[in-house]
Write a sequence for this structure.
């Protein structure tokens, strides 16, 4: 006869399956979490889901299907016990991962593995005698006199993880520590209570609930980190804009336009148009998240150079050899490189600066080349020191990083060891689909 306790246990098992299934679905689809965190939650909820399913099948077989299903009860109980113990091994791996420690050579992991192997050996032995637990002829579960022997390794597994977590408290964030602590301590308390109560089974639902609590806590932390990263990215974009639009460049351009208004109104109008295009492209570059057509970046660069040629007149010459334009690159790629050349190559005491911008399509890639015959620099210097000399411009390291991240492209700088030989910057952009 089915008792009220059996009905409650079945109801708890079904509730656990539903909640675990929801958690598993959310873990697969959730955004703004790292790959390792997503994998962790998918693994945890997979194990918890399988555990609750086997737990439900065992209760169903024992209470509703009769003696002929005793084998099913035994098999499902074995898999239920296996999944519960495997979850503790998984938690050890997670604790080590969150603490930035390696599994190989870890005494913590070896201890957990030892207790898990002992548990599995006892579980296998229990299938061949009735001293630990057994199913009677009516397909009902009973604990044997040696049942605590099976329970001991389970408790030791949880205690090992709990001690390992406490020892690594300062190596992880507070939210992660609290979430993992609850995940370990609540089932441990439930298991200890369950060892003295043979009737109401609430360990499974406790495990599911603390899994959800841990998921919500750690996910919220990842979302906060994502928001902070986006805020920092937006701040960097704004800083890039401020660095790119330098006050002295604005003043010099406006002064040139001021005098041109009286001396050459048509050229003043032409310069205002280019200056407007330059400012608009700078503003657009701040909000762009991905690569843009090369023609847009070229328009930005032409506008900048046209403005500078008005200022420097016969000191700056630009030659374009653009045979290929059907490719993409990050915004603020070509223009900052050209601006570096102008800033450090135009000097009334030196010969006029010649800049050549050309493109060509090779097998599987586009080559963008920027050449100048300015004073050059020592190619033995590091990129970082080269960028310091170009402050407050957007450094070439910044350009190189964005090229790599957005286009898997590379940037190469060639300049003679001795000063006075000009500079060549080559950008190799693989063919990509945007």
């Amino acid at each position: 006869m089915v008792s009220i306790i059996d009905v409650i246990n079945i109801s708890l098992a079904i509730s656990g399956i539903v909640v675990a299934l929801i958690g598993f679905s959310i873990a697969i689809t959730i955004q703004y979490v790292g790959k390792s965190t997503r994998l962790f939650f998918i693994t945890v909820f997979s194990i918890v889901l399988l555990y609750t399913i086997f737990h439900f099948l065992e209760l169903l077989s024992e209470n509703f299907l009769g003696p002929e299903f005793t084998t099913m009860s035994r098999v499902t109980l074995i898999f239920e016990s296996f999944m519960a113990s495997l979850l503790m091994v998984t938690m050890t791996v997670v604790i080590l991962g969150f603490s930035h420690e390696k599994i190989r050579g870890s005494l913590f992991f070896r201890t957990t593995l030892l207790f898990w192997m002992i548990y599995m050996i006892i579980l296998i032995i229990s299938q061949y005698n009735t001293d630990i637990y057994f199913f009677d002829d009516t397909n009902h579960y009973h604990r044997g006199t040696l049942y605590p022997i099976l329970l001991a390794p389970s408790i030791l597994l949880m205690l090992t993880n709990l001690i390992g977590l406490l020892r690594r408290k300062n190596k992880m964030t507070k939210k992660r520590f609290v979430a993992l602590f609850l995940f370990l301590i609540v089932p441990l308390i439930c298991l200890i209570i369950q060892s003295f109560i043979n009737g109401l089974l609430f360990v499974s639902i406790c495990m599911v609930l603390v899994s959800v609590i841990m998921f919500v806590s750690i996910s919220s932390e990842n979302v906060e980190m994502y928001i902070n990263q986006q805020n920092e990215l937006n701040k960097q974009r704004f800083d890039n804009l401020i660095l790119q639009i330098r006050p002295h460049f604005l003043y010099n351009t406006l002064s040139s336009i001021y005098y041109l208004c009286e001396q050459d109104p048509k050229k003043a109008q032409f310069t205002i148009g280019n200056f407007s295009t330059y400012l608009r492209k700078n503003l657009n570059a701040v909000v762009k998240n991905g690569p843009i057509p090369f023609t847009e970046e070229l328009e930005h660069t032409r506008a900048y150079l046209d403005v500078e040629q008005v200022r420097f007149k016969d000191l700056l010459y630009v030659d374009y050899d653009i045979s290929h334009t059907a490719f993409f690159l990050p915004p603020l790629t070509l223009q900052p490189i050209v601006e570096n050349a102008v800033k450090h190559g135009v000097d009334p005491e030196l010969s006029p600066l010649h800049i050549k911008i050309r493109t060509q399509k090779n097998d599987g890639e586009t080559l963008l080349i920027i050449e100048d015959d300015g004073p050059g620099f020592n190619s033995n210097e590091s990129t970082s020191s080269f960028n310091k000399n170009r402050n407050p411009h957007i450094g070439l390291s910044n350009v190189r990083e964005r090229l790599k991240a957005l286009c898997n492209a590379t940037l190469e700088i060639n300049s003679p060891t001795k000063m006075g030989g000009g500079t060549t910057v080559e950008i190799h952009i693989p063919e990509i689909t945007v």
Summary: The radius of gyration is 34 Å.
